[in-house]
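Q: Structure tokens for this one, please.
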Amino acid sequence: MSGIPALNPLAITATAANTAAHVQPAAGSDSFGKFLTEALNQVNELQAQAEQAGVDLAAGKSTDIHNVMIATEKANLAVELTVQVRNKVIDAYQEIMRMQI
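A: Here is the predicted structure, written as tokens:
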């Protein structure tokens, strides 16, 4: 009978710790913080475009109210999405903090 060889828990733990210590992000991948900063900058840019479209409409530079409304709704949806993502991140953080070790 060939049987299954016994596992050595110390060897498994040492291998896992060694692997975890050397894990690095893939080449060319960005950090989550950088991704988040870029996303917030895009939301800010959408808000600025919507504001500028409104100012142009009020000043008479533009008569196309459709584009103003589209820009405003894009900015509004981007802000709502950002708030919802923030809420989910906070919920996840709170759930992790409630976990018992």
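A few notes: The chain has a mean pLDDT of 81. Helices lie at 9-21, 32-59, 65-98.
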